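fwd from M.: "can u put these together and see what the complex looks like"

so here's what she sent:
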Amino acid sequence: MQEVLPEGGMVRKLWIGETAKYREHVLRLDPESRRNRFAGGVSDDFVRDYVDMTTGLDAVVHGFFIGGMMRGGAELRPLGVRFPRQAEAAISVEKPWQSHGVGSALLRRTLLAARNRGFRLLHMACLADNRRMQQLARKFDAELTFDFESVIGEVESSRPTPLSLMREMMSDGHGFATAMLDLQTRMLRA
Ligand SMILES: CC(C)(COP(=O)(O)OP(=O)(O)OC[C@H]1O[C@@H](n2cnc3c(N)ncnc32)[C@H](O)[C@@H]1OP(=O)(O)O)[C@@H](O)C(=O)NCCC(=O)NCCS
């Protein structure tokens, strides 16, 4: 599956110290997207606490960046020692960047990260009327079996392979190089 993103945009893992970028992104979501993201209406304070907690846990967060701003995010949170092979996944894209392939790119990276960490079950809180998320999950039929009734996605390939580990390493390397180029370009323009 080819990754098509809006021009100038990139997906990469969040670095230490970038919690504020993630928090601001989630706070910018329009009310409907926020409701879909959290499977219900939540306050700004809830969002702040939630993001702080997520980045404090052993979570893998990918961000979609364009023009130096984080406009989309996907997180993979292990459920902890009592459920060692299970994780929670969640995706959000700001409205103007929705339907441009960003959600697909974020889910692809999240599934790869889940696979490489040996997670077999991914939980996604998705409201029954969230057609867009359901369509997105359907695109990954081969890797993800989705049951919207119980809101559980199953990553079918439970074992990481040298190739899947390499794909993640290459994405990380590419993400770092592109971020540096982006920063340099913006510094030159300033
Ligand atoms: C759900 C969400 C993450 C999807 O992200 P996105 O960037 O819009 O997704 P994509 O552009 O990659 O589109 C994925 C698929 O959704 C479907 N889709 C896109 N736009 C759609 C629309 N307006 N209506 C219905 N389906 C749509 C298409 O099948 C598309 O695949 P295709 O382009 O190959 O045909 C995004 O809409 C979002 O952040 N919503 C609010 C938060 C949320 O619902 N999160 C999910 C719960 S965790």
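replying to her w this: The chain has a mean pLDDT of 85.
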